[in-house]
Structures are given as structure tokens and as C-alpha cells.
Write a structure and sequence with these properties.
Blueprint lengths: L11 E2 L4 E6 L2 E4 L5 E2 L1 H17 L4 E6 L5 H9 L3 E7 L2 H14 L8 E2 L14 E5 L7 H14 L5 E6 L10 H13 L8 H11 L5 E5 L3 E7 L10
Parallel strand pairs: 5-6, 5-8, 6-7, 8-9
Antiparallel strand pairs: 1-4, 2-3, 9-11, 10-11
Helix pairs in contact: 1-2, 2-3, 4-6
Bound molecules: S-adenosylmethionine.
S-adenosylmethionine (SAM) binds next to loops.
């Protein structure tokens, strides 16, 4: 039986690889910018399984808060009919994403872009789907506000906004481990915290998204999928 544990997503640096030699007696370790999070390796296949049912048959998928880049190269490898645009607001993450893409030799991932979810302007004018994994609880609430309002501006009607992470349901943590995790998040930054899925859904509703389709995921996480509703054309006057 596979045992999943809810653990904070901590990144480790990939062990530098020794590639080639400058002389017979000297091996030069190449710098490897890839970051690595054990949780990402564990959750990428369960997430991919849901994404297969959510993402469109073709088009561009924008990932907000790509982190290491491990996820996006995995999804790109398994969903070759889609093009992926990784983003993050951390320069270390952007370097790691480039390194993961280079190491994976995938040709359907665009170069990573700086994107702060809470900013009013995003560098991407349009996308066919948006995914955002493990950011909502590890960022101030204004990042979720920005994510949902910009997603509403960018996505066409029917397009999905996919969120993944731990959420409270009806104000209650879904597991004791999530409660402990939430306490740890608050200790790291009082603006962080496990959000109530109803609060995120209310924000999404007011921005023009459907009610969410929610899927239970390993380690007491949820997949939460909103779809853009056709904006009201309004009565002609
Ligand atoms: C826990 S990591 C998750 C990374 C990746 N999605 C994963 O699941 O492995 C959180 C990520 O959110 C990014 N982040 C935090 N606040 C952000 C914001 N306002 N806009 C964009 N990215 C943000 C961080 O830089 C970090 O890469």
C-alpha cells in the first residue's frame, strides 16, 4: 500500500552531476540549477490523471507558480498535444525550470516567464487552460485574488482553472496533518495558510467561474477545477 503524507513542500537542490572531464586528472562538476521536492515526484502522477480529464485537446496551458519545473516537464512529456508555459515569481525557480526543461529534452514547454500572481498585469494575454499547484496556501490571499481575476480575463469561456493543494472544507481541516501543516505555514508567514475551498469558490464565482468540481487527492489534498462561464452578453439597450 502506498502511504502518502502531507508534508510542507520543501525544495532541495539536485546533487551536482559530474559531466565530462577537463583533463585526465580533473573532473569538473557542472552546475545544475534543478530544484527537487520529494512531494512533487509523489503527486505528479495523481495530478496528471486528473489533468487528462480536465485539459483541452489542444492549446496552451499556463502554469502559475511552477516552482522547480519538475511538474511541467512531466505533464509536457505525457501530454504532447499541448504547449506549456511555466511561470514563477522566484528567480531561483525560473532557473530551475529552465534546467528541468533542458534535462528533459521536451519541445512543448516554452521558456519560463516571471509572473507574480498578485500583479494586475500578467505577461500572458491568453491561454486555453491555467493550472496552479500548491500556491494558494503558500502565498498571501492577494495572490489567490490576483490568480482568479487574471484567469477570468485570460481564459475563454469553458476553459479550466485547475488548483491543487490542501484546503479546508466547510471551515474544517480535512485531516489532522493538514491542521499541523497550517500551523507551520502561519509560523513561517502569518499571511500564508490553508484556505477554505468555499472562500476560493466565492471569489471564483464573483469573477465569472462555475462552481468547482472537487476531487480528493492523496495526502489529503484536493483538485479544484473551475470553468470560465460565458460572460453575460447583457441586454441590449
Ligand atoms: C510550494 S511551491 C509549489 C511549486 C510547484 N507548483 C509544486 O507544486 O511543486 C510554491 C511556489 O509558489 C510560488 N509563488 C508564491 N507566491 C507567488 C506569487 N504571488 N506569484 C507567483 N508565484 C508565487 C513560489 O515562488 C513557489 O515556487
Amino acid at each position: 500500500m502506498t502511504v502518502y503524507r502531507a508534508t510542507p513542500l520543501t525544495f532541495q537542490r539536485k546533487r551536482p552531476e559530474v559531466r565530462g572531464s577537463l583533463s585526465r586528472n580533473f573532473k569538473r562538476p557542472m552546475t545544475d540549477h534543478r530544484l527537487y521536492a520529494p512531494a512533487t515526484s509523489r503527486n505528479r502522477d495523481p495530478i496528471l490523471k486528473v489533468l487528462r480529464t480536465v485539459l483541452p485537446a489542444k492549446g496552451a496551458v499556463l502554469e502559475v507558480a511552477s516552482g522547480s519545473g519538475d511538474h511541467i516537464v512531466h505533464f509536457a512529456r505525457h501530454l504532447p498535444h499541448l504547449t506549456f508555459q511555466p511561470t514563477d515569481r522566484s528567480s531561483e525557480a525560473l532557473a530551475s525550470i529552465s534546467a528541468w526543461v533542458e534535462a528533459a529534452c521536451v519541445d512543448n514547454v516554452r521558456p519560463p516567464l516571471f509572473l507574480d500572481a498578485s500583479a494586475s498585469l500578467w505577461p500572458i494575454p491568453v491561454a486555453d487552460a491555467i493550472i496552479c499547484i500548491n500556491m494558494v496556501h503558500i502565498s498571501p490571499w492577494r495572490a489567490t485574488i490576483g490568480l482568479i481575476s487574471r484567469a477570468a480575463a485570460i481564459l475563454p469561456p469553458g476553459a479550466p482553472l485547475y488548483l491543487y493543494g490542501p484546503f479546508k472544507v466547510k471551515g474544517v481541516h480535512t485531516a489532522r496533518s493538514n491542521q499541523e501543516f497550517d500551523r507551520g505555514l502561519h509560523d513561517s508567514d502569518p499571511a500564508w495558510g490553508v484556505r477554505d475551498v468555499a472562500a476560493v469558490a466565492a471569489l471564483a464565482r464573483s469573477a465569472g467561474f462555475s462552481e468547482p468540481i472537487i476531487t480528493d487527492m492523496p495526502a489529503n489534498n484536493l483538485s479544484v477545477v473551475f470553468r470560465r462561464i460565458q460572460p453575460d452578453s447583457g441586454a441590449s439597450s
